[in-house]
Amino acid sequence: MRIGEIAALAGVTTRAIRHYHHVGLLPEPARRPNGYRAYGVRDAVLLARVRRLTELGLSLDEVRDVLADDAGRDLADVLEELDADLARQEAEIHERRRRLAVLLAAPPGEVEPVSPALAALLAEAPATTSPSAAKDREHLTLLDAAGAGGGELYELLGPLAADPAVLALYERLDDLADAAPDDPRIPGLAAELVAAVPDEVFAAVPSDGVVVAGFKEALLAEYAPAQAEVVRRVMEAFMEKGRG
């Protein structure tokens, strides 16, 4: 194979190949009488591995170390590894297309980049203009993007999303937008919000938690003082029940 052919096969540029030669990552192949480099299958396999490792975020020095550890392996073993890697990429592409299908099927104006499971959950929620309900939806979307959700959890939350009584709780939280942080309505509303969540939900939440440093403070900062106090109490009660 000539350099352009192996570049197309391995999914890299000819410029990248020449750079790999320059830094010693890819050995120079033998040249034909006409002066052109003659690349073989093993060169293509090596280039494909370099591309995959750099896509994972490894530096060229780190890639060199990995390749050195693999020196002497049978070509068949390397090819099997690459085949498994292609299968993984194929599965990821299939999952992305499945998510795109859900987004494309959504009504205009309701498209959000969420997992199909969360999209199904949000579809069960009644239409509302509640700012608190909108915030909760945004927080679910964020946790979903962080991989903290899951089909089991969303299935358990389904009845809550469709419950008019839960929407009424959101609206009561909206009513605290201009209230003082010691408003007498705060304790009762916080308790009702906690009581509305079934115990099964806590069992479905990942045991390692989903709240990174600073997340709680950033979330509370989105609310007015009285609303933030309700949310703070709810979060603390959730953490306590989760530990139990």
From TrEMBL:
InterPro entries: DNA-bd_dom_put_sf, MerR-type_HTH_dom, MerR_fam. PROSITE patterns: HTH_MERR_2. The keyword DNA-binding applies. Residues 1-69 form the HTH merR-type domain. It holds the Pfam family MerR_1. Residues 72-99 form a coiled coil. It comes from the Bacteria. The keyword Secreted does not apply. Keywords: Coiled coil, DNA-binding. This is MerR family transcriptional regulator. It comes from Streptomyces bambusae.
